[in-house]
Amino acid sequence: MDLLDSMKVYVLAVEKGSLSAAAAACGISATMAGNHLRTLEKRLGMQLLQRTTRRQHLTAFGEDYYARCKEILRLVAETDVQAQNLQLAPAGKLRITAPLTFGAEALMPAMAAYLERYPEVNIDVVLSDRVVDLMEEGFEAAIRIGQLPDSSLIARPLAPYRLMICASPDYLARKGTPRQPADLSQHECLSFSPAALAHWRLTSHQDDVCSVPVSGRLQVNHGQALRVAALHGMGIVLQPAFLLETDVRAGRLVQLFPTHALPSRPLSVVYLPDRYRSPKLRSFVDFLVERFS
User: Fold this and answer.
1) Which of 118, 113, 121 lies closest to 96, judged by CA?
2) How far is residue 114's CA from residue 54's CA, in Å, rounded to a whole number?
3) pLDDT digits (tens, 9 = 90+) for 84-96
4) What separation in angstroms does the CA of 46 have from each of 31, 61, 65?
5) What is the pLDDT at residue 90?
6) Cα 167 from Cα 258, distance rounded (Å)
7) Per the confidence metrics, is the pTM higher than 0.70?
8) What is the pLDDT of residue 112?
9) What pLDDT is recorded for position 85?
10) Three-class SS of residue 273?
């Protein structure tokens, strides 16, 4: 006899007060229900129910075994539901948030492939450099840059957020090309904020670290605006590689110190642990890991 079927009969016999009631609930004969119980007791080598013509009583072991059977059956049912969900096609509205520059320059170009792969999913993307509360603000996932604080969120790592130092050919023709990292302190350097402008850190192939104090007259709190400023020859820019690589390939910008390593920052997608069963969220997270790994 199937062990799970026997457990189900036993649990129902306990809850409904008799084997005949359990048999009726399972759609089997009372004799078959008794066979299930005897099979369990033989397997365990322990008596589960003490039966008389009028009443039945749980043994001490039977009471403990009843609780364990309930938990096992619950887990099996939950796993079955999860397996059914996995087979469902992702569908519905997915609300996510991402930092401004990454969202506009890296996430948006990738969304075409995701939407083509999952035609039943609609995506609401909110771009913000603010750290949002997923539960309070109704988001299912967020892309975050930097070290993550301890929290109840589940995090999947993506490729690190790499940086590049670039300038336009026009700027370099007018101001000269810095030949070593220390030369940067003599140039106009563009920055997201004054705090980000204080020092730029470069590491050579020999692992020599150079922390260069830099300065500049222009700070803009938007990565795309800094890129445009660099394209117009306003200074040297330190920004994410995905924002500048196309301009470097096209010759609109020149990468400086390509053999030096620049600090990278962790990039992650985070979500609430109980939401991952959703096929649409699972498909989106798996897509991000595939695309940005």
Assistant:
1) 121
2) 64
3) 766 677 888 999 9
4) 20, 8, 10
5) 87
6) 12
7) no
8) 94
9) 64
10) helix
- CA angle 263-267-270, nearest 5°? 155
Q: How many Cβ atoms are within 10 Å of 109's Cβ, its own excluded? A: 11
Q: Phi-psi region for residue 26, left (φ > 0), alpha (ψ -120 to 50) or beta?
A: alpha
Q: Which two tokens stand for residue 206?
A: 């020999």
* Structural domains of the chain in order of their starting residue, each with its CATH number: 3-87 (1.10.10.10), 92-161+266-292 (3.40.190.10), 163-263 (3.40.190.10)
Helix runs in the chain, H state only? 3-16, 19-26, 30-44, 60-87, 100-102, 108-117, 134-137, 169-175, 194-197, 223-231, 241-250, 279-291
Strand 154-161 vs strand 189-190: parallel, antiparallel, or unpaired?
Answer: unpaired
| φ and ψ at residue 94, rounded to 5 degrees | -120, 120
DSSP summary character for residue 106: I
Q: How far apart are CA 200 and CA 213, in angstroms?
A: 7
* C-beta of residue 18 within 8 angstroms of C-beta of residue 54: no
143-200 per-position pLDDT tens digit: 998 888 877 889 999 998 889 999 999 999 999 999 999 999 999 999 876 655 578 8
Say yes or no to pLDDT of 128 above 70: yes
The amino acid at residue 181 is: P
Crossing angle (nearest 10°) for helices 19-26 and 30-44: 110
Instruction: At 213, list the tokens.
Output: 């104090």
